[in-house]
Structure formats: structure tokens, C-alpha cells
Design goal:
It is built from twelve helices and five strands. It is an alpha/beta fold. It folds into three domains: 69 residues, no CATH class; 53 residues; 165 residues, Ribonuclease H-like superfamily/Ribonuclease H (Nucleotidyltransferase, domain 5, 2-Layer Sandwich). A five-stranded mixed beta sheet has the order 3-2-1-4-5, with helices on both faces. Helix 10 links the parallel strand 4 and strand 5. Helix 2 packs antiparallel against helix 3, helix 3 packs across helix 4 and helix 11 crosses helix 12. The N and C termini lie far apart (66 Å).
Length: 346
């Protein structure tokens, strides 16, 4: 190892071996292992391969050992000065990432690491490298994701929260002889929804589409107690589809005195056909409870539809709508077999 390490005496090698056995610091132990391997006559490439480090790391550790001996193997980053990623800095970063760059005077609508570095410097007067910003983002568990488009509820906040509390109280205090379900419709497209998937580097998966789209619709009701789902299928999403679901609920829950249906404000839920159906003797068992407008997160069946898309319709390869609907039915049957009571957390 001429030129990389000086010739060490036998007692120096023994001291290195004892230090290696007693070392509890992972970084220093790796450095000691590099020196020990070099002392045993192994080359730079062999040492790097055995310890799973880069060749430049082997050269750097050997140079520090030549200059300062064993003390040169210690982690000297504690002498770099004050730590920059303090709790206060991470708290400011957490609040900043949760907002938009335009809230801080920037024209760009999305965050970049460089923009975060400049914004955090203006707030804390602490300047960090872009690579350090990556570490800070990892520490606050930030991630790059796709935002969800939402529409603001037109109701006043007090009225909206009051309605949500009433529905939550209804489900939590539901009598044994009554049933509560969450209702909604979902579109099934023959042209597949495109979603994220794992791919090899340099490759992009292709999803073949039939070209001409065909649609089917489901109207479903998720039981608040059991988590099981009832559904009906149709070629059109209209009041007739919704009424068919209501009659299926009446037939399925024959022993229930009242069937509470929690649903959104879609127009097909409030037509004259629906009113006429609810005015019959069987229809009087049904009570409709409308959620505040544009509050899909409070309709628990939305998660079931999202799982349906993730497991069946996204990136699917079905050539016909009949095959796709067959897969949809199979998934919903499996969903009911594994169903569990839904959570009422807001």
C-alpha cells in the first residue's frame, strides 16, 4: 500500500484492531475498517467493494489518517459551527411548505427547493444549501404529490359545521332498528383512467385505450355500521338509477324502521320522480340527509370509489365494457367480504 498508508508497526495495528472492537460510532467504525483493510494489503477497489463505499471515500480516509493519525478518523462536523436545521427553522419550513409561494410575494405558484432556500433565508436569516433543504424537507416528512382540486363550500362556516355535526351525531346515536348509509354515484369509463405506476429507468409504460369511450354508472350505498356496499348499475346517471338504489335499500333492510341516506346535492337526488317515490308507503321509510355543498370528504363512500378506481379502472386493459364491469363486480364482492365498520372521524 505504498503511497496510500505509511508502514505501520505491529503495535499500531493491534491498537487499531482494539479501537475497532470498542468503537460504537458507525461513521468512525467505517473509517477504521477502511484503514484496517488497507493495512491487511487489500487494494482500494477491493476495500471499497467490501465496505460498500466509494473509492474516493477510501482515498479521503487514508489521507486523513496519514495527516493526523487515528484522531483524523473522528467526525469533525461538530466543529462546523452552529446547527442550521434547528427546531425553529424546521417549524418555519413546515408552515411555509403548507402555503403557496404566491402568499410570500413570488410569482411562481409551486415550490422548488431553491425558492424555499430563498424564502427561508428571508424569514430566518439562515442560508442553507439546496442539498441541505432536501434533508430538511425529509425531516418534516414533506413529499411531492399531486394537489386535489376543490371547490369552496358556499355556506357560512357555522352553518356547514352545524350540518356536519348533525349527520355525525345521527350516525353515532343510531338506534338498533334504524340504518344509515352514505350514497353516491360513480362513473366507469372504458377508456382507462391514467394513474401513477412503477417503471424502469428510461422506460415509460403504455396503456392501450379502445379509443371510443363507453360509460356505465353505479349508484352505491355504504352501510355506516358494517361498511358493506349495495349498488345498482345503469347506462345513464339519472333519477331512475337513484330510485332503483332506494328500492334496493328498502328490500335489503326490510326490518329497519327508518333508512337514513346521507348524500350530496347532485340534481338527480331532488327531482319530482324521487319525491314521488318517497311519497309511497315503502318510500316513507327513507330519510334523505343532504351534506353541505362541495363537501365530498365527508361522504364516506368516496373512499370506496377511490379504492375501486385504484384496484380496477386505473390503467386497466379491458377491451370491452362488459369485461370491465365484470371486474368491478368481483372487486365490490371482495370489498364486502373484507368490510369493517367505517370511522366517523371528521
Amino acid at each position: 500500500m505504498e503511497g496510500i498508508l505509511p508502514e505501520l508497526r505491529w503495535c499500531d495495528k493491534e491498537r487499531l484492531m482494539r479501537a475497532l472492537q470498542c468503537c460504537s460510532d458507525a461513521r468512525k467504525k467505517t473509517s477504521l475498517l477502511i484503514i484496517v483493510n488497507l493495512c491487511l494489503g487489500r487494494g482500494v477497489n477491493t476495500t471499497a467493494g467490501v465496505l460498500h463505499v466509494h473509492r474516493s471515500t477510501v482515498y479521503r480516509v487514508a489521507a486523513r489518517f496519514r495527516d493526523a493519525g487515528e484522531s483524523g478518523l473522528c467526525d469533525r462536523r461538530r466543529f462546523n459551527g452552529h446547527r442550521k436545521l434547528t427546531d425553529k427553522y424546521l417549524k418555519v419550513l413546515h408552515d411555509t411548505v403548507g402555503s403557496s409561494p404566491q402568499d410570500h410575494g413570488w410569482q411562481r405558484p409551486t415550490w422548488t427547493r431553491e425558492l424555499l432556500v430563498r424564502t427561508l433565508f428571508a424569514k430566518t436569516r439562515v442560508r442553507v444549501h439546496v442539498a441541505t433543504m432536501s434533508i430538511a424537507l425529509h425531516r418534516i416528512q414533506a413529499r411531492r404529490g399531486r394537489p386535489k382540486p376543490t371547490v369552496r363550500c358556499p355556506w357560512p362556516e357555522i352553518r356547514k359545521n352545524r350540518r356536519l355535526r348533525e349527520i355525525r351525531r345521527l350516525v353515532m346515536q343510531l338506534p338498533a332498528n334504524e340504518v344509515a348509509v352514505y350514497e353516491d354515484e360513480v362513473d366507469i369509463h372504458l377508456n382507462p383512467k391514467i394513474g401513477c405506476d412503477w417503471m424502469l429507468r428510461g422506460q415509460q409504460k403504455e396503456v392501450l385505450t379502445p379509443g371510443k369511450n363507453v360509460k356505465r354508472y353505479l349508484a352505491g350505498a355504504l352501510d355506516a355500521r358494517t361498511g358493506k356496499l349495495l349498488w345498482v348499475e345503469g347506462e345513464r346517471k339519472n333519477s331512475a338509477l337513484f330510485v332503483r338504489l332506494l328500492w334496493k335499500l328498502v328490500c335489503h333492510y326490510r326490518r329497519a324502521n327508518i333508512i337514513h341516506v346521507i348524500l350530496d346535492n347532485y340534481s338527480i337526488h331532488s327531482t319530482s320522480l324521487v319525491a314521488l317515490s318517497l311519497d309511497t308507503s315503502a318510500g316513507r321509510k327513507i330519510r334523505l340527509h343532504f351534506l353541505p355543498p362541495y363537501c365530498p370528504d365527508h361522504n364516506k363512500i368516496e373512499r370506496a370509489w377511490e379504492d375501486l378506481h385504484a384496484n380496477v379502472t386505473r390503467n386497466h386493459r379491458c377491451a370491452t365494457i362488459e369485461k370491465l364491469m365484470e371486474n368491478v363486480r368481483q372487486y365490490l364482492v371482495q370489498h364486502n367480504r373484507a368490510a369493517s365498520p367505517i370511522t366517523l372521524a371528521a
